[in-house]
Amino acid sequence: MMKLHILGCYSATPRTISQTTAQVLELNNEMFLIDCGEGTQVQLRKHKIKFGRINHIFISHLHGDHFYGLIGLISTFMLLNRPNDLHIYGPKGIKEIILLQLKHSNSYTGYGLYFHELSSKESELIYENEKVTVRTIPLKHRVYTNGFLFEEKPGRRKLNIEACEKWGIETCYFNKIKDGGDITMENGELLKNEVLSFDPDPVQSYAFCSDTLYDEQIVPIIKDVTVLYHESTFLEKDIERCKPTMHSTAKQAATIAKTAEVGHLILGHYSTRYGDLALFEQEANEVFEKVYLAEDGKKFKF
Amino acid sequence: MMKLHILGCYSATPRTISQTTAQVLELNNEMFLIDCGEGTQVQLRKHKIKFGRINHIFISHLHGDHFYGLIGLISTFMLLNRPNDLHIYGPKGIKEIILLQLKHSNSYTGYGLYFHELSSKESELIYENEKVTVRTIPLKHRVYTNGFLFEEKPGRRKLNIEACEKWGIETCYFNKIKDGGDITMENGELLKNEVLSFDPDPVQSYAFCSDTLYDEQIVPIIKDVTVLYHESTFLEKDIERCKPTMHSTAKQAATIAKTAEVGHLILGHYSTRYGDLALFEQEANEVFEKVYLAEDGKKFKF
Q1: Do both A132 and A243 map to the same domain?
Q2: CATH number at residue A248
Q3: What is the per-residue pLDDT across A181-238, written as a single tens digit (0 to 9) for each?
Q4: In whole numbers, what is the pLDDT of chain B averaged over residues?
Q5: How many domains does chain B have?
Q6: A59 pLDDT band (50/70/90 cuts)?
Q7: Per-residue confidence at B28, pLDDT binned at 50, 70, 90?
Q8: Contact in structure between A205 and A150 (CB atoms under 8 Å)
Q9: How far apart are the CA of B42 and the nearest CA of chain A, in angstroms?
């Protein structure tokens, strides 16, 4: 089960009625925070997210609406005597910004605070545990920006218990079968693995792409993901704003979703100039069917 | 008329139900922002304060609950194409913190952004216009900290129109009278100024003192102010917490108010450990009568 909790999904500046970018992805019992606009710590509290469980924070780029809440969250973790290490992944410069502020407040975190600064223009593996990998998705924006691809690793094959009993396979061979191995019977007969096991559950994956100009170069990286979050700052009627600001329209987001054959598309990072978000969904639906609108506080389960 | 708008008055960390320190003082048509905890820009919007009118921001110290909202406000002023210059007064280091973040976001303010970094341990004049002065109040805290004393300059004397008519004073002498001058009549008789004019309106003043250990050394600086805002992070029952954290109790705040013979005392910067703020008022009232509780969103007029 993959859960996505949108804490904020508007561009530019926090307002009383809307928050800037931050979202929590739960995947295989890990809780990942993606971007951290001003006020994210309050959003985490408001939505009763156990944010002590967040050990990895991914920052797409150093525009304020994506990271001004990070220093506050780091400080609050300090006040709460957080025990776990905290890992920050973000553009080169993020470490200096955070440490400078901690230095001037004469504060030092009691927990381990580790920065993983990014500067590659190629997609790279930046995090891996037993069950999940995280890779960067290089994006085209006014400053150095990465999206992030979260992918479950394929699980082990599942035992076909009925078949194993039928062939009298002893339990000591079960791990070998789960790992894909064939079994040679005492009579010399070879039982192929697919007779004794089922395919593992399909893996789930999530691609976060914000902020970015329309860029087909990301398609091979995000191909076939379960869920794509792609920024749609503007509607097509304002497409002339995309180039100078290096943002995308809802239609462009949908075109990327269609080309990459993703399972679902979530739109977000709306300009605050628009009142009616339904227009974003309508516009994207002309190109791609499975479209959802991000909204502050909304939870998705896939 | 002096107006004080409390945007946030709790210590440590912003929560869904409470904000960290920020307040707007209106004095003689100037709007001063004092401290700027995370989320201050949203508080300004929520309380419908015309924050484009803020040209001077005073930061007491570089703990997050007093300045993490500053970079966001500066950035939002940028997005709003603010025309006026903005002046920031705060501890040495504040300029580097802000400019480093603007540099990494590849952003430059269209308006003039001026930093007035403070490092003196003595009270000093840091701002002055025709009608108001602002001086620092050196405080004792874990990092370099200043309170701020906002004072109206004495106005000109007021004409006693009846007396002027009685003595047949011509209007060309009115400015001289307002400036305190005596008038010599054609017959050689001297009319003393106090016969022809009244005292100017009494001046108003506001002293902001947060965060600080109990410190009687500030008394001569804040003597007789109209309103004193003094931090009261703790109640007396927790006084042992004051020394290591370098904060004050409500009783200590009241003792400073009494010793300095101020007009009114406002308490604030409460620790979030307390549920019932009335206990702060009760405790202070045992020492000093005119006590008010700061509350997020509360407006005072003096």
Answers
A1: yes
A2: 3.60.15.10
A3: 999 998 899 999 999 999 998 899 999 999 999 999 999 999 999 999 999 999 999 9
A4: 96
A5: 2
A6: very high
A7: very high
A8: yes
A9: 5
Domain boundary among A198, A230, A265: A198
Cβ <8 Å between B101 and A75: no
Predicted ipTM of the assembly: 0.91
Same structural domain, A132 and A14: yes
In terms of domains, do B141 and B235 share one?
A: yes
Residue percentage of chain B with pLDDT more than 70: 100
Which one of A7, A13, A246 would you mutate to disrupt binding with B, by most B Cβ within 10 Å of its Cβ? Answer: A13
Same domain, B178 and B39: no
* Alpha-carbon radius of gyration of chain B: 22
- Preferred mutation among B15, B38, B97 to probe A, highest tally of A CBs within 10 A: B38
Say if strands A291-293 and A264-268 run parallel, antiparallel, or are unpaired: parallel
Which of these, B262, B270, B268, lies nearest to B302 by C-alpha position? B262
The answer to whether B85 touches B114, Cβ cutoff 8 Å, is yes
Burial of residue B166, with CB atoms counted within 10 A of its CB: 0-12 exposed, 13-18 middle, 19 or more buried: exposed
Check whether residue B31 and residue B180 sit in a common domain. no
Q: Which amino acid, one-letter code, is at B295?
A: E
Are A164 and A245 in the same domain? no
Q: Report pTM.
A: 0.92
Structure tokens at A275: 């009142």
Range of the domain at A168: 158-198
The answer on A134 and A84 residing in a single domain is yes
* B43: nearest CA partner in chain A: A16
Mark whether A168 and A218 lie in a shared domain: no
